[in-house]
């Protein structure tokens, strides 16, 4: 299984939180990352997006169909995101477009077994895979990249 975590790009401040839009910089971050992802995402990647305005705008830059899923919205647990994605047993690839601190907790848990909050920069992607060889399971971080690196 491939699990790709994509934090929403830079958003405006304000309330209510769910309606915050991407800034001009955020729109550019989303577009740059979407262009990078488009050439790399496996066919039939399942794209799951938080219901907030800023995550919807980030995912829209990808120009692929996606599912809006409240189980990956603000305030959910890392466990909820992993369960919703079907980690580690789902077939194929799942792209999650979500929020801090939860995405950082998912990354920390996958890499260390401890859901301490790691920082994932705005608009950044962390790409993991889970492989099983016999009775041995392996989690691999393929990349961690932010829009300013592209």
Description:
The protein contains four helices and six strands; from the N terminus they run βαβαβαβαββ. The chain has one domain: Phosphoglycerate mutase-like (Rossmann fold, 3-Layer(aba) Sandwich), CATH 3.40.50. Helix 3 (78-85) crosses helix 4 (102-112). The chain is of the alpha/beta class. A six-stranded mixed beta sheet has the order 3-2-4-1-5-6.
Residue windows where pLDDT falls under 50 for at least 5 positions? none
Strand order of the largest sheet: 3-2-4-1-5-6
How many strands?
6
Tell me the series of helices and strands, N- to C-terminal: EHEHEHEHEE
Task: Label the overall shape.
Answer: globular
Helix content: 25-40%
Which features would summarize this protein structure in a list?
150 residues; alpha/beta; Rossmann fold; 6-stranded mixed β-sheet; 28% helix; 25% strand
